[in-house]
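Standup, Tuesday
Yesterday: got the pipeline producing structure tokens again.
Today: sanity-check two examples.
Blockers: none.

Example 1:
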Amino acid sequence: MIGGLEGEKVRWTDTVKTLGEKIQLLVGDCLVAAGMVSYAGPFTSQYRAELEDEWRKAIKKIGLKSTNNISMRQVLGDDVMIRIWSVAGLPNDNLSVENGIILFKSRRWPLMIDPQTQANKFIKNMGKSVETGLDIFKPSEGNLLRNLELAI
């Protein structure tokens, strides 16, 4: 058993070394991710990439360390969660995944302009997995919504 754990000691030592190096980059990486979540939501994919690049340049300019070409997706993306989103109907392109990250990492409700109804289907599918469910109102049900607000 001790001989079997010897290999783990080497792996653990490497892991500690790697984490020690990554901790030096944490502030810069998180700054890029936080800036993107806060400000990048309404923009196109190309403009988001340019904005992310500007964040990285600004961080380097003030002397903070960050991972080369760090992105919001690398910092905040969870491969398992992204796969769940994909199964729920979210397209797997980078813009859609970034939108999902912004949606789930933001503290406020986003405005979704959805001409292809992809977000609509995605939110409804995700709502099925929530214990409390999801209430859906159409604009034509304005009186129902106003009555609900008065009841709350």
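Example 2:
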Amino acid sequence: MNLRICFICLCLLGSASCQLATEVPSAPQIQFFDAENYPQQLSSWGVLSTANGRVQIAQDSHVYDLNTALFTDYALKLRTLYIPPEGQANYHPQEAFDLPVGSVIAKTFFYATDEQSAVVLDAKWDGDPASLDPTRLRLIETRLLVKQADGWDALPYIWRGDDAYLAITGDLFTLPVADGSTLNYLIPSRNQCAGCHAENHTTGTLAPIGIKARHLHRGDPIGGINQLSAWEKRGQLTALPALHSIEANAPWGDPQVDLTHRARSYLDINCGHCHNAVGAADTSGLLLDYQPHTPPTLGVCKPPIAAGRGSGGHLYSIVPGQAEQSIMAFRLKSTNPATMMPELGRSLPHQEGIQLISQWINALPVEPCL
């Protein structure tokens, strides 16, 4: 599907001047609001505009991408980061970077559409907003993380026409799909956003999930330069070490990359925000963030602690060499809210992700689980 926008330049014969057929509007500007004055319309923030048939991000915002991203029912995602003038992010080798007050992270979820306005689940995108045609998109939601003086706050906005509107309680859409099926797309409530972004279950403090070195250590989706280097050159990132010393997660779908590296990267972004040593799922004993965990901690021959129906009748999280007998594969395949993992953010199984994790489990050295 061609989502490229064409701009026609009209050059007058014998004239040295050339102008666009349609006046290109200037990019919007970020407006920051305190927690007592959050606007109902996303346009008030200035993070994104679809005026005059173009998708434009705010001035001084920058598009970024992740090596491996969270799966959300095959939705495409436009991620932008705004750091206020003179502000800087502080580098951390493992945790989310410390961003200054006034920073705005925006993630817009959307689908390409066919001629009947049905969503296309297998569409691709090059990551450049200028290549998007708003008339061939279904914008679904924009989630904001805004850095206030007392910490991060999460705000979900739902797109309706040319603007998006604050939806504290979330919503549920039934979308027609190009293959004739339908998709029940759940937009999380503000509290559900906090459920994932509070990676430390004890403090409950919200934090970005993707703004970490291992996720961002990759080429910029527009300029090609390494994203971390680009942030440093803009004066927006301090204490960046030599790039060769920074560990990077793998693109999960690249078959040229080591299978274990891809599987661990996939589990890290999809499960690690809860399944970490201080996360909401710490009592399970199953830790899936990309840290040097032992095989049992990763689930190898590990019996569930309190999975209940979530075990699917299986005995171990991972049975080496037998994905079909492993709880992990079962829960990734499930669409039952009582058993599926992750618990939020999807209604469809990620078939390619399931295939990756199953391939990894099947490649583990076979050993009996006693």
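Quick observation on example 2: The longest strand covers residues 137-148. Helices lie at 190-197, 213-216, 227-233, 259-271, 295-298, 327-333, 351-363.
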